[in-house]
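Sample entry (761 residues):
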Amino acid sequence: MKQLILFAFAITCISAYAQENKPAEKKPLTLDVIWGGNYLDEQKLVVRKMNSGDSIAFIRADKATNSQVIVTLDFATGKLIDTIFTNQIRNEKDSSLVTFAFFEDFEMAPDDSKILIQTQIESLFYNSTRQFNYIWDRATTTLKPVSADGKQSYVSFSPDSKKIAFVREGNLFVKYLNNDQVIAITADGSAGKVLYGMADALYENCFGISKGYQWSPDGESIAFFRFNENVVQQYPITVYEGRTYPEIISQRYPKAGEAIPEVQVFIYSLRNKTLTKVDVGVNPNQYITGFKWQPDGNNLYVQRLNRPQTQLEILKANTRTGNTTIVFKEENKEYVKVFADNMFFMQTKNAFLWQSERSGYAQLYEVALNNFVVKPVTTGNWELQRIEGIDEENGEIYFTSNETAATEQNLYKCGLDGTGRQRITNGQGVHYTLLSASFNYFLDEYSLLNQPAIYQMYSTKGRAMHTTLVENKLLVQRLKEFTIPVTESFSFTSNGNNLNGWIIKPLAITRGRNPLLIYVYGGNTLQESLDAWKGKMGLTMRYLAAEGFMVVCIDPRGTPGKGQAFRNSNYKNIGDIEMSDLINLKKYAVANLKADSNAVSVIGWSYGGYLAALAATKYAGTFTNTIAIAPVTNWRFYENAYIERLLQLPAENPDGYKSSAAVNFVRNYNSGLLLIHGSADDNVHFQNSMEFSRELINANKQFQQYFFPDYAHAISSSGSSNTARINLFTKITAFMKEQLAQLDKPIVAETSKPVNNKKKK
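Predicted structure, serialized as tokens:
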């Protein structure tokens, strides 16, 4: 009996131990967990290279103590060197800490003697910002504001680190850091009227240009844009915010076929206090898409693009007289792709490197300055994405390309003549790199579809250095708490083209076959299929898969990454080409992935929203239901520089504009549309959804619409909890489940007698 009791006691202890040590039960992933705070935030470094020595600087923060510092780290040893700034400093006569609690970004001066500290950053256009800026002098340990007269944008140091330039309220200023003297280079600038030293929203969105000025190599002159926006019509955006009388904000927005801003280029000499106008021509229908100083400062090279975007000319401007001559041209019968910040001068070869698609793929070319003869440096049926650095001393060019696969990005190097091309980064995924000043080392930020960002130091010979700087271990560990399906890469053939994408399969099949959700962007500026961590949007797609939907995304023809011909497949015929690929994706998923052909949804945002709206109308009946978020429903309503490169001017291609507009096909629509838009969208205007709704109502069609008052294009809330995104995807999830439930209901006649149990098609 005693032995039996002891045995029972042992069993009880083992059972209790097992209960205590069994793996924790996984929780379902929810929208509140994804968007409701920072629990699943990815750790990202705000990091800059030091311009002298082999080191980097980055921000470290401890919110518990309100401590935030900028530290430097040495590549060679992998050790922290110094703290070069802290928000805990005290000014000499102050009894309190500095005037801001936290800062968001920083820049190093060219000689590393000073640091530009940026705080209270707010959006200006799509990418550019305005903020309060401070200069920290490391030698004198003093902190001074750049300006006390309002937030500034595009602040930058002069090459000698003795001055800074900045833009405020559309005017360009220069400040001498030794005596705090501020010189107003321009005075008549005004937001929405005349802009100096900056690009407008059109140029930023369509050509990737934000800062519109550049210091001369000696720091004694500054070249800058002058934008005359008075010729551009204004678009009214209504802001409600609980006001008795809503406010109307006017936005300069050049739509298809309408006037574009007039752009001029000037050079101001700080030494001589003279202003020189550069002759860029008098044609109002042209774009000035960039300029670069020649290293000796004698010439400025200006890029001029014609309105149809078929011819890009390089003008060589004498910086003393402003006189110009055309020295180089790029031409394409469809359109010339403009690469932001193009032209990289090489003093040892008296030439510049030029990124171009003249071979059909984005590659690098050498252009001689004495005769402007062009010769290829890199070649291949792959895309060179970015120049990362040019080491003339050792005769090497560093660049990022997708040579290994269209879904990847890796760092490469080659000789100045293109020989000896060598891949440096290892493994799959997408790599963003920061080279050290000596080109001996680099910081690699890389991720995969199922792996958040990792930051690792390497030598440029490809050898990993020291321990990993950031591994996002906390995020990876927290993700393990939830039941989350994985994302898998895949590809299939459509119309003779291999298309890349990813798929998230549901955790269980509950209906025999999988209801299919096709997520698409499809525009010519973005690849969704990249093998990279997708952040909270990616987790949201996984949430939808966990809710029972098979989520599939592809990059149809018309998207970048596979060469000019692939991207220009939809030239003058947008919409139909992409829809053909989505229809083939549906067929592929039904045949190979157990997708339910009677339960196929299409969801997209912006250009993807356009495709979803087109799927509901012009291609009505092909898909079960569609969710169109911030869609363009009539391309006459969108920015001219973007859409005219695809469809030409409306007068030149009226049929193209007509056949590509979802608003013209509402009579085809049957059912299953959810239309979503932010009322203050300054990119794809709310007008698109209003006109779409009007035409659907006039055609007596039933649909659902869901609008976000005073929200912009991103439909996103500020603060740690993104209530707008929770609300948005809660609505989308409920809509898709309702649509799915409708498919499973028997069709009942008016007599209330069952007629059949077939699913609706």
